[in-house]
Structure formats: structure tokens, C-alpha cells
Amino acid sequence: xxxxxxxxxxxxxxxxxxxxxxxxxxxxxxxxxxxxxxxxxxxxxxxxxxxxxxxxxxxxxxxxxxxxxxxxxxxxxxxxxxxxxxxxxxxxxxxxxxxxxxxxxxxxxxxxxxxxxxxxxxxxxxxxxxxxxxxxxxxxxxxxxxxxxxxxxxxxxxxxxxxxxxxxxxxxxxxxxxxxxxxxxxxxxxxxxxxxxxxxxxxxxxxxxxxxxxx
Length: 215
Prior knowledge:
Largest sheet: 5 strands, parallel
CATH topology: Carbamate kinase
Oligomer: single chain
Mean pLDDT: 89
CATH architecture: 3-Layer(aba) Sandwich
Shape: globular
């Protein structure tokens, strides 16, 4: 029985039909006996809309309050994804980054992960649930919500996979793998057959766009 971490970006969960498609894909893995932790980004366009709303209130909003605001995008998506799984008769639970045990430093809007203690994730997995985790966010030791900045949801998935010692980390996007550079910009870039978790963490932390990979 494999433990798999999957990440779906904003386009993959861009509307309710796409969320249902994601749930069907997850259901297929579960039918094979896999245990699943699924990291989800905010629905496409939601984060940009939240930023627009904030700037209509004031040109330079506080970074703390921006983190509070932007974290709601992922929380909407994880709840809807869990509901889509419930509709298929699959037990699932949504967790914020904080509930998943993701602890960050205190740098708002571009926090770095300090450590992950995924006690709740393990507990729900042991109870037979698919665990849906909000990407892009965590919590400081003092309990402040933070966001991870560029590549934040990819970083969440890779870091969780490492912390959980997952058998696979699968990141779904619009390219067919992880390349040495963006193939749309660098034509002679090479697709990598495999890459270690620590290398993926470094790439995601630097804001790289990560393609689908088996790690």
C-alpha cells in the first residue's frame, strides 16, 4: 500500500467540474489501495481577485493581513475537494497548513518552512481518510498564519512528502515532467528521470514551476 502525496494547481481546481474530475482521479488511486495526501492550490483567479480587493481598500495592505486574506483561497479549494470526495462515498478531510503541522518562520507573504509535524495527517490517514491539505500556507510557532510566496503549493507538497516519507510525490501541471529549465523558454532543456526530495525543495523554494514527477 503506497503513500502518495499529490498536488493539484489552481487550473486543475478552477471550477466545480474540474474539482469533481480531481476527485475522480483521487478515487482511482484509492481504489488501488493507495493512501493519499492531496495538496491543493486556490482556484484559478481567486488569489488575484483577493489581491485586487485588498488594494481597493488600501494601496499597501499590511503583510500580516494579506496572509490572513490569501490563505482563504486555498481553504475554499480544500473544503470543496473534500466535499467532491464525499459525493463519491470516499472519506476525506480538509486541513489548513497549520492543522497539517506546517511551522514557518515569521516572514509574512514569503515565509520559509521551519519544520513539519504532521500528527493530524497521520491520524486521519490511519482512520482511512484521504487528507486534503491547503498549499501555500503555514503557521508560526506563535500561531500567526503565513503564506510561502512563489512556488508555495509545490513546496508544501514536496515538504509534506519528505516529512511523511511518502513513496511518491506527484505534482500535476501543464508540462510532462521536471526539466533542467522551462522548456517553453529554453528549447534544449532536458527532462529529468528522477530527482531527490531535497533538490525538489530547493527548486520549489526558489520559485521554480514544478511539473509532474514520480520521486
